Amino acid sequence: MISSDLTLRLARLAEATTIANLSRDLIEDGLRWRWTPMRVAASIRAPNVNVLVACIHDNIVGFAIMRYGDDDAHLDLLAVAPPYRRAGLGRQLLQWLEKCAVVAGTFNVTLEVRAGNEGAQLFYKCMGYRALAHLPGYYQGIEAAIRMGRDLSCPSGRKLRSVI
Ligand SMILES: CC(C)(COP(=O)(O)OP(=O)(O)OC[C@H]1O[C@@H](n2cnc3c(N)ncnc32)[C@H](O)[C@@H]1OP(=O)(O)O)[C@@H](O)C(=O)NCCC(=O)NCCS
Asked: What is the torsion angle, in degrees rounded to the nearest 10, for the CA atoms of residue 58, residue 122, residue 22 and residue 77?
C-alpha cells in the first residue's frame, strides 16, 4: 500500500541525478533537457527552494520543486512515476510545498504546464489552480504553456482572475 510506506522529505544532493532523470523522462519529453543534474543540485542547495521527494522503500517515486520569492512562489517541477499515479501522491507533494509557502506568508503560487498536457492541467484545477495565461512557444519554441495560479489565502483560489 502506498500510504503506509510513503515518506515525503527534502532531497539529498546525491539524489540530483535521479531527480533530473525523472524530469527528463516524465516532464521534458520531446524537449531539450533543461533540468540537468547540475541544475537540480543547484536547486537542492538554494536556500529559497524546496526540492521534495516522495519515497517508497528508499525509491524515489515522485518529486516536486518549488521556488519561494518575496511575493510569489513558483512550482518549477512536479512528477509522479506512472505506476504510482492517481493515488494522491501528486496532491501530497503539492500540499506539502504549499504549506511552506503559507508559513512564509507567501500566498500566490504560479506554475507553467505544457499546453498539450491535459492530465496535469486537470490535476492542477482539482488542486484549486486556475489558468491565467496562454504563452505561445514558451517551451523552446516547440510548445505553448498554460500559466496557472492559485491564491492560497482563498480555499478555491478564486481571487486570481482567469484571463483565458
Ligand atoms: C500530474 C501528476 C503529477 C499528478 O500526480 P498524481 O499523483 O497522479 O495525482 P493525484 O493522485 O494526487 O491526483 C489528485 C486528483 O487530481 C486529478 N487528476 C490527477 N491526474 C489526472 C489526470 N491525468 N486526468 C484527470 N484528472 C487527474 C484527479 O481528480 C485526482 O483525484 P482522483 O484520482 O481521486 O480522481 C502526474 O500525472 C504526473 O507526474 N504527470 C507527468 C508529469 C507532469 O505532467 N507534471 C506536471 C507538469 S510539471
From this structure: -100
